[in-house]
From TrEMBL:
Belongs to the succinate/malate CoA ligase beta subunit family. This is Succinate--CoA ligase [ADP-forming] subunit beta. The gene is sucC. It catalyses: succinate + ATP + CoA = succinyl-CoA + ADP + phosphate; (S)-malate + ATP + CoA = (S)-malyl-CoA + ADP + phosphate; GTP + succinate + CoA = succinyl-CoA + GDP + phosphate. GO terms for biological process: succinyl-CoA metabolic process; tricarboxylic acid cycle. It comes from the Bacteria. Pathway: One-carbon metabolism; formaldehyde assimilation via serine pathway; Carbohydrate metabolism; tricarboxylic acid cycle; succinate from succinyl-CoA (ligase route): step 1/1. GO terms for molecular function: ATP binding; magnesium ion binding; malate-CoA ligase activity; succinate-CoA ligase (ADP-forming) activity; succinate-CoA ligase (GDP-forming) activity. Residues 9-241 form the ATP-grasp domain. Its EC number is 6.2.1.5. The lineage of its organism: Bacteria, Pseudomonadati, Pseudomonadota, Alphaproteobacteria, Hyphomicrobiales. The keyword ATP-binding applies. ATP binds at residues 46, 53-55, 112, 117.
């Protein structure tokens, strides 16, 4: 789960981590009132969406002006003008795709005199099973581009969970960033506080870009992007309250209500599978047969008839779906339950696209019998390869 920058800054403040002061605004009036709460004379107005590259982004609406999603203001009038242009407009960045994201809130912060821009992030390094800090002296830039062009500017420091964070970790990062004097001590404390934040809140990723050195020689988190482990959110109701459903795909939100793992993709064949590994294999074999999957959808090991129906509705809500492949291996899951759900969904929704079903495992013969006696246009498959060939052929023929 991702959160907005202003919410990330609130968490930074809770852990005593330095960042420019700011206030979120949901309308023009609230944005203007920030002048009374910030020192000035320079203010920064930032569009709040779950995507990076806001400063370089562009709004679809001409009324939003030619500037991007991060703007400088020197008066209340300029703040309100920027907020009026941004709120309700659609911001397109490299990370949003062509559709962009609608801006429903803005963040007004104090202006800061910047001496240097640095990059800092923390993530779960699966290779070492540790929290790793990634740091670079090339802050404020696309870190992927930095890694490609100048990899020597990036340093990675892993922290052994047995010993935990130690001051030498922070010093190593500080020296790599070219920090001097009191800034080294600041960096040691900053990295320690960020490490505690990552652990305490079960974060999967933390990114500070840029981490700045101010003209006064102080370290400060100018921007912050946080992502949390969704499987651990039950332990953090305060973080759950920060969830913004308007920033998420409606189909994925609907899927979460039924405990379905769903991710929309760009292909034409909808997939309903039980088990993440089997789902990945299903998508791979669809591509091998010359088509593209329209989604990843794992109904899990104990799906009910109602859950299967909900899965079908979510798949068919995508207009790009031209065919559906159901691939079920019945271990904990019973094939007859899946078959009943498929039949019920097909009848309720009057499915008009080709539908291929491959069942294997517990009660497979009963499941196949239910499908065969349904009177519906459902194509059975003997194995995964057969299923993929049949659905891709049907989609190509229908096209």
């Amino acid at each position: 789960m991702n959160i907005h920058e202003h919410q990330a800054k609130e968490l930074l403040e809770q852990f005593g981590i330095p960042a420019p002061k700011g206030f979120v605004a949901f309308n023009v009036k609230e944005a203007g009132e920030a002048v009374q709460r910030l020192p000035g004379p320079v203010y920064v107005i930032k569009a709040q969406i779950h995507a990076g590259g806001r400063g370089k982004g562009r709004f679809k609406e001409a009324s939003a002006g030619e500037k991007g999603g991060v703007r400088i203001a020197k008066s209340r009038e300029e703040i309100e003008q920027a907020a009026e242009q941004m709120l309700g407009a659609t911001l397109v960045t490299e990370q949003t795709g062509a559709d962009g994201r609608v801006v429903n809130r803005v963040y007004v912060t104090e202006g800061v005199e910047i001496d240097r821009e640095l990059y800092l992030s923390a993530l779960v390094d699966r290779a070492t099973s540790r929290i790793a800090f990634i740091a670079s002296s090339a802050g404020g830039m696309d870190i992927e581009q930095v890694a490609h062009d100048t990899p020597e500017k990036i340093i990675s420091v892993s922290i052994d969970p047995a010993s935990g964070y130690q001051a030498f970790h922070g010093r190593r990062i500080a020296f790599a960033l070219g920090l001097e004097g009191k800034q080294v001590g600041q960096c040691v404390k900053l990295i320690g506080d960020l490490y505690k934040l990552v652990l305490d809140k079960d974060m999967s990723m933390l990114e500070i870009n840029p981490l700045i050195v101010t003209k006064g020689g102080e370290l400060s988190c100018l921007d912050a992007k946080f992502s949390f482990d969704s499987n651990a959110l039950y332990r953090h109701p305060d973080v759950m309250e920060m969830r913004d459903l308007t920033e998420e795909d409606p189909a994925e939100v609907e899927a979460s209500k039924y405990d379905l793992s769903y991710v929309k993709l760009d292909g034409s064949i909808g997939c309903m599978v039980n088990g993440a590994g089997l789902a990945m294999a299903t998508m791979d074999i669809i591509k091998l047969c010359g088509e593209e999957p329209a989604n990843f959808l794992d109904v899990g090991g104990g799906a009910s008839k109602e859950k299967v129906q909900a899965a079908f509705k979510i798949i068919l809500s995508d207009p790009s779906v031209k065919g559906i492949l159901v691939n079920i291996f019945g271990g904990i899951m019973r094939c007859d339950i899946i078959a009943e759900g498929v039949v019920a969904a097909a009848r309720e929704m009057e499915i008009t696209v080709p539908l291929v079903v491959r069942l294997e495992g517990t009660n497979v013969e009963l499941g196949k019998k239910i499908l065969a006696e349904s009177g519906l246009k459902i194509t059975p498959a003997d194995n995964l390869g057969d299923a993929a060939e049949k659905i891709t052929a049907a989609v190509k023929e229908a096209a």
